[in-house]
Amino acid sequence: MMRFRDITLQSQCQQKKYIKIGYKTELQFITLAMILQGDIMDKSMVQICLAGIFGCTIYFLYSYMGILPAVVFIVIYILLLKKDFKKPLAFIVMGFSVLFFINCIIYFYSMNLGENIKCRIVEEGKDYYIGSLQNRRIKICPKNKEIQLGRQYILKGEFHRKVDYSKGIVGEYNLIASKPLKEDLIYKGYLIKSHLYNKLLTVTDEEGAAIILAVSGGDDSYIDYDKREEFNALGISHIISVSGLHVSLIYVVLQSIIGYKLALIVLFFYVIFTGGKSSTFRAFIMILLLVLGPKVKKTYEGISALAFAAFLLLLIKPYYILDIGYVLSFLAVLGIFTLNNKIKRKFYKLPNFIATSLSLTFSSMIFTTPYIIMRFNAVSLGGLISNLFLIPFYTFLLVLGNLLLLFIKVPTVFNLLSLITNSVLLIINTMEDFLVNLLPLPLEFTYIEGVMILILYLSYILIRRGVKSLRYLPILLFLLTIKQQYIIYPEINFIGGKKADIVEINYGTRKVMVCNQKVKLKYVYENYKGLDRIYDEFEEELTLKLSKHCSIDVEDKDGVFALQINHRGKISNIIIDKEYEKEATQCCYKSNSSSTSPNCDIIRINRKREGIILGHYYENYKLIGGELYHNYVH
């Protein structure tokens, strides 16, 4: 029997999603570079930082897309900024851009490894490790059960240059043998976190132990998929990892107890202990500048300290421009510095703690939303309420988690703290369960819609700076959005499956999926936003009426999966033949409903499994005037 399944927004949000980075990254890391335009451009440190971001952006544009997009971006950049720079400063800014461009080349292509290397294991994948050496990252495979996360090893093997820009990986190392080195301070930090997790399991459940370790120790590897999805739906994913907010809170507590000098030293080791993420190093560098600046009679205000931190981290690790945590951290803080006070004044009638929380959330969201939409194709509006109610409790949990770590060898104190911690976890879980059912589901967007929102942001900034010619751009973007939502000519896209292929059909405002077996959306990596219905597990024949002008007959007989498309009276056929040979170019195939057009052309698709990437498009067609054309949009 044929089954019909309605696809709602809720069911889509519950499915696991995979984000393709690929060629779409260029606009994502341009976001940070271009959003810095506005009232802060008169600060020299900001201009130098922007020059560094610009240099890295050009390098990755060239690496991903070639010379032409890079040149186009250079021209746009110069046209937008030429009135902001006087000649001496313009040469300095361009000099820093060239410096960062060269720095990217040096980072990815200057390393040549021999048979034996000294390397620390910093990450673990399904069948590989990520190692760190000479401030670079390499992929190590195959996995060896004897290798421990966080430890240094002498590795013997063969190095191949296989660059992964988004992860900062400069190559792949085929492992032959390994020899562990003496335990050092960093490795002992990994052991302490593992010991803390096992100790927490004696006083709470697995979920509670995982959350405490993530909030206080920066290790979120124990948090399961369902809990991560809940955090995403609530818009509080930033809470479950040690971030700049956590580092700032830790410093305030330490400074009040042991003074600023010892607090900075302890804070540095805490940043290393929690994994040394870009967001935590950003916070540490800013705290260092803002605290020590006045001591040496050099005052840094927030924006300049933020720009210096961004500049320094990007100089050390240029691939950070592609790192989600790096970009979101700086955009959020930039939004807080530039907009928080203005927004807070709008909430003057509210109690101070509510006004502060709302203004912080709004100001950070304004800058991060375009990037989140382009990177994740969704944004949670419920995060405003979730952050208001949950952040105070997670802040308390952060303090408790670090106290548990401090008193892990004192059973009486540890057990007392664990009782308080479990009470806080109970309150948090109760509130999260309530909010998940109460708050609206995340809004879903396409990548293009994210780009349009970003362009609106930039247009607003430029209009405020006097570029009046852009005032009609929002109307043009509105018309483009309307056009994007309506497919004029039928599109037929084929998605590779493990045992059967999925056919995605788009026409007008409708999007459906067809398959002769059950469709599991968690294995579909393409964006299926706006999907109306899935037709799967049908018996031999199926007729789809997409509109009064377009209908599709689907047949699955004798190993042949066939589509016959009738668009405005013109008929075309597509056949997926499991036994199809490469030399066959056409075949005489005709379904029961095609007798009105016996001489129509037929497109046959080679369905050899080794040639298909599972979960992704492998054939795309557009039907125009009764003829099928390859569609290269995807």
From TrEMBL:
InterPro entries: ComEC_N, Competence_DNA_uptake. It is a multi-pass membrane protein. The keyword Endoplasmic reticulum does not apply. Pfam families: Competence (PF03772). The keyword Cell membrane applies. Keywords: Cell membrane, Membrane, Transmembrane, Transmembrane helix. Residues 218-461 form the ComEC/Rec2-related protein domain. The chain crosses the membrane at residues 48-77, 89-110, 279-296, 303-320, 326-343, 350-373, 385-406, 413-431, 443-463, 470-489. Its main location: membrane. It is found in: Cell membrane. GO terms for cellular component: plasma membrane. Coiled coil: none annotated. NCBIfam families: ComEC_N-term (TIGR00360). This is ComEC/Rec2 family competence protein.
